[in-house]
Design goal:
- By secondary structure, the protein is mostly helical.
- The chain has one domain.
- The protein has 11 helices and 4 strands.
- Strand 2 and strand 3 form a beta hairpin.
- Helix 2 crosses helix 11, helix 3 crosses helix 6 and helix 3 packs across helix 8.
- The relative contact order is 0.19.
- It binds zinc ion (ZN).
- The site of zinc ion has 6 residues, from helix 6 and helix 8.
- Zinc ion binds next to helix 6 and helix 8.
């Protein structure tokens, strides 16, 4: 029995190592970028939320989704990722869960993306919504959801064989790419990504935003807005929750990486894939 467990753990370790392999070669931000990130987190001015009404949420997401899709697909193709990773950029369903008040968005294990009503409501611009979508599309592009699932599985094994089977999400109407939904099927989406996956998805999102013609700082300002909303929540002036920051940890290092990605785009540097050995 012990041998079987050891073998399972060893196989798991190989799987995790394989899946956690980064796709991009990303340098650590320098001291200047880190200082700028800390200052931005503390002092950036954030405009008011738009308070988008429930019946305007789907049209709001629909306004940006095509640009995000095409730009994500172009970035995926530029990276020479396999077609099965690029195809979901055009075909993934984007579900708007209008009744969910939390500020959150997910990529799920079926390569679909979900956005909560609270997020659409609280963002200040279409570009900020595009920034969050670009980040989720990047998770799909790199198969991060699959990596999370395997990490969770291994975690379960280590904790005593508690690997919970993720519920198989039901089929869906593929034609209707943006639609209302109140269903939940995102057990996997609710677990946290590793900080390295976040940084990879953020950097890619900045390139997607650039390609789609949105302001480069759109994801940065979406994250700053979430940080502020969370701060307000702890002081009691905001009653919702900011689930996005629980599953996508946001700190100085992450913001420094965002600043570095924006600088690289402005300097015309392409995304740098890791060298294959
Ligand atoms: Zn993320």
């Amino acid at each position: 029995m012990r041998n079987i467990l050891t073998a399972a753990l060893a196989a798991g370790a190989i799987l995790v190592a394989g899946c956690a392999t980064p796709h991009l070669d990303i340098a650590e931000p320098d001291e200047r970028q880190k200082a700028e990130a800390a200052a931005t987190l503390q002092h950036a001015r954030i405009g008011p939320p738009r308070n988008v009404a429930a019946d305007r949420m789907v049209p709001t997401v629909r306004r940006v989704i095509r640009r995000v899709r095409l730009a994500s697909h172009a970035v995926c193709t530029d990276l020479k990722l396999p077609e099965e990773r690029c195809k979901p950029m055009l075909e993934a369903k984007v579900l708007v869960h209008t009744k969910k008040k939390d500020i959150n968005a997910f990529a799920d294990e079926d390569d679909n993306v979900g956005v909560y009503g609270g997020l659409v409501r609280h963002m200040g611009t279409d570009a900020e919504i595009a920034g969050v979508l670009a980040h989720e599309f990047a998770h799909v592009m790199y198969g991060h959801v699959e990596s999370k699932k395997i990490n969770a599985f291994i975690g379960g094994l280590i904790l005593g064989g508690l690997a919970a089977a993720a519920s198989a999400a039901g089929g869906g109407d593929n034609q209707q790419l943006v639609r209302d939904s109140t269903s939940l099927g995102w057990e996997i989406g609710a677990t946290a990504y590793s900080p390295e996956m976040e940084i990879e998805a953020d950097r890619t999102a900045v390139y997607i935003l650039h390609r789609a013609g949105f302001p480069l700082n759109a994801l940065q300002s979406a994250l700053l807005r979430m940080n502020r909303a969370r701060a307000k929540r702890s002081s009691g002036t905001f009653s919702g929750t900011v689930g996005f920051l629980e599953t996508h940890p946001s700190d100085d290092r992450r913001h420094a990486h965002l600043i570095s990605a924006m600088e690289d785009v402005r300097a015309g540097k392409p995304l740098k894939p890791v060298e294959k050995k």
